[in-house]
Structures are given as structure tokens and as C-alpha cells.
């Protein structure tokens, strides 16, 4: 049974289908049937007219962005409406967006799980080759330094910090247009902006309510 916030993405392949609504209504009904029952809300719907062979889909990008902003899941009617490209589906996983295909609800876990296993096997092989190379170097008498993976190196800590900062900056970029809309509507104080974000149902990165301090930090990144 569906619950929480959802963003729907509907796609047709031709301008004719897009203008006539052919295929869109069927997809919309498929989404509605999947969401039927439970405690859920459909925040937004995005419709795109684009060939499935292309990866650049602006409306899908907007849908993914909306999922991040509202802390919602992406729902599609049919798996082939999203993409037949496994690499593209992995991109969704990297974007931190959970998606469900109404016609195959378990496809998300199955698809991403298979790709994760493949990636894990690749990492395992790389790790094994690295360890074998280090062992061979040690046998040759080569002096091996470094942390040996026990204590994170300064470089590793810097990379981790950069990753967290990049995520925070991306989140701020997502929210910037909404902040400008709130300010244009007269909500210019930190408290008013926090109230506006909370009223819109937009959570903080930790899925909590906005406070004055958090809004101040957010504005510092915009």
C-alpha cells in the first residue's frame, strides 16, 4: 500500500500522442491504481514528449529535482516509459531518488540490486588486484607507507568533506527558485521563509521542519 509523498512522471514518444493525450491517460490511470489506498499525496505530475532512445529529458530532470525538494518518491506507470538503459537507471540511484514502476513495483529493488551486485563484484576484483600488487611489492622489499586503510588519510577526509559540501550546494541550488518565490511574495525574514518552506511541505535534508538557523545556512549557500 502506497504512502508518503509522490511525484509522477508520464512520457509519450511523439508530439501527436502528446497533443491528443493518447497514452498519457492510460499511464495516469496506472499510477492512480498503484497509489489507490493508503496515506499518500501526489505532489506534482510531469509529462514529457520525448523518444525513449534519448537520455536528456528535461521534464524527467525536473521530476527528479522535485523529488529531492519534497522528499518524495518518483512513480511511473510502466518501466519502459522511464528507460531501457540500465546505466540511466543507475543514474537515478546516484541522484538519491527512489522510484517505483506501477506495473512492476519490485523492479526498482531488482534492477538496482543487480547493478549493485555487479558494481560490488568489480570493486572486489579491484581490491584483490590492489592487495596482490602490494603483497608482491612487499616481497620485493619495497617499503610500503600510508594508512593501510585503518585510519582515513587527510586526502580521504578532504574528499569526504567536499562530497558533503557538494550535496549541500546542490540542495541549495534546487531550493533557490522556491526561496526567490517566497521572497517575492513578501516572506523575506528568516522565520517567514522557514514557515513558507514548512507550509509547502518541503523538508530539510534530514526530513525535518525548517528552523531560522537552517534557513540562514541555506541562504549562505545560495
TrEMBL record:
The keyword Disulfide bond does not apply. SUPFAM superfamilies: Resolvase-like. Residues 5-141 form the Resolvase/invertase-type recombinase catalytic domain. It comes from the Bacteria. CDD domains: Ser_Recombinase (cd00338). Keywords: DNA integration, DNA recombination, DNA-binding. The keyword Repressor does not apply. The active site is at 13 (o-(5'-phospho-dna)-serine intermediate). This is DNA invertase Pin-like site-specific DNA recombinase. The lineage of its organism: Bacteria, Pseudomonadati, Pseudomonadota, Alphaproteobacteria, Hyphomicrobiales.
Amino acid at each position: 500500500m502506497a504512502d508518503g509523498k509522490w511525484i509522477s512522471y508520464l512520457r509519450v514518444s511523439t508530439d501527436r500522442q502528446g497533443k491528443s493525450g493518447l497514452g498519457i491517460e492510460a499511464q495516469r490511470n496506472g499510477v492512480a491504481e498503484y497509489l489507490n489506498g493508503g496515506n499518500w499525496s501526489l505532489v506534482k505530475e510531469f509529462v514529457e514528449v520525448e523518444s525513449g532512445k534519448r537520455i536528456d529529458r528535461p521534464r524527467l530532470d525536473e521530476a527528479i529535482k522535485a523529488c529531492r525538494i519534497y522528499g518524495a518518491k518518483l512513480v511511473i506507470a510502466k518501466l519502459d516509459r522511464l528507460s531501457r538503459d540500465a546505466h540511466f537507471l543507475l543514474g537515478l540511484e546516484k541522484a538519491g531518488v527512489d522510484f517505483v514502476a506501477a506495473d512492476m513495483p519490485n523492479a526498482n529493488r531488482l534492477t538496482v540490486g543487480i547493478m549493485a551486485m555487479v558494481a560490488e563484484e568489480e570493486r572486489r576484483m579491484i581490491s584483490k588486484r590492489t592487495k596482490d600488487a602490494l603483497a608482491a611489492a612487499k616481497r620485493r622489499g619495497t617499503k610500503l607507507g600510508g594508512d593501510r586503510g585503518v585510519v582515513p588519510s587527510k586526502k580521504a577526509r578532504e574528499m569526504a568533506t567536499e562530497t558533503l559540501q557538494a550535496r549541500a550546494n546542490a540542495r541549495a541550488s534546487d531550493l533557490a527558485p522556491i526561496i526567490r518565490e517566497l521572497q517575492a511574495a513578501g516572506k523575506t525574514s528568516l522565520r517567514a521563509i522557514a514557515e513558507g518552506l514548512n507550509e509547502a511541505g518541503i523538508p530539510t535534508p534530514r526530513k525535518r521542519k525548517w528552523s531560522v538557523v537552517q534557513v540562514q545556512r541555506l541562504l549562505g549557500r545560495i
